[in-house]
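A quick aside before the break. I want you to see a complete sequence-to-structure record at least once, exactly as it would be stored in a machine-readable document. Don't worry about memorizing anything.
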Amino acid sequence: MTANPTGHEPVFCTIVPPHLLDKAARSDDPTLSRLARRTLERDALERTRRRLTTVIGAPAMLPPPEASPGKPHRTIYDAGHLTDLPGTKVRGESDKPVTDATVNRAYAGLGATFELYLKAYGRNSIDGSGLPLNASVHFDRDYNNAFWNGEQMVFGDGDGQLFLDFTNAVDVIGHELTHGVTQHTANLTYFGQPGALNESVSDVFGSLIKQYALGQSAADADWLIGAGLLGPRVTGQALRSMKAPGTAYDDDQLGKDPQPATMADYVQTSSDNGGVHINSGIPNHAFYLLATALGGNAWERAGQIWYDALTGGELAADADFAAFAQLTVKVARDRYQDGAELENVLKAWQQVGVPTQ
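That is the input. The structure line, written in tokens, reads:
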């Protein structure tokens, strides 16, 4: 397992990985390179702010008095293309839709995430105790990312060339909020294999939230992360593919999807916190193999196994792929005994080259 040589870093999680923006920042097209650099600079500043927040502390976020148990409490803010968060409140819980479609998509995505966790796993919001779900839209200008900053969701509008509005993809919203679930449970270290697991868990549940919202079975799902985000200047389908890692995009501006599907192609790198957005393709593919082998709704048996492993209290913050795989075997046996669930968990990890013993 790879350990972070500088110790545990506070997590700042963006849906578009830095390696992808790094490639665009070197584009021969001065407009595209400028837009990519602008997002990289903003991400670096927000990452520093997140680190400072962990030093000085952040105010506790408790359910407001009017929040009902088992009901979401959503607030959407408009940053007005500025960077001061959260911005101006534009829609609260139970408010009617507004004329801004971006606001309404953010509101619906927060609700879809809350509903999946509550209905499928009995979890009351991302912390399990009714944490309010806050989001800011229209962050900065031409901002090519969305992120969870440890306290709330933030969405850029995209630049219209490389990326489109980041509220377009409900799995992106679910992905980022699941970083909050991980933060409140296993708190996986954001470096190397633990960091790749952190990213993979967010991809898994982001995809499950999309499938649940659309009523899709494992066989019906596209297993793409961020479909609908790529702009007209980009050749590709999405940011990542759980079904076929390494095939989501192949573009002159963004490069080729570098994700491996198995340990045979594991990428050793010092960038991207040790490849957290790259090697996440391996556990992503294992989940896809399990879910499609079991069939039916992926959030049920396959999702339950991953949820139990993440939230059961046995997953160490520095767990590598093998440790996580072994825990999924244990929880599958505990919940389903020696049935098809256990058999297919073992097969899925074997197919991607991760040991379970």
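Two observations worth writing down. Residues 208 and 303 are 8 Å apart (CA to CA). The two ends are 15 Å apart (CA to CA). We'll return to this after the break.
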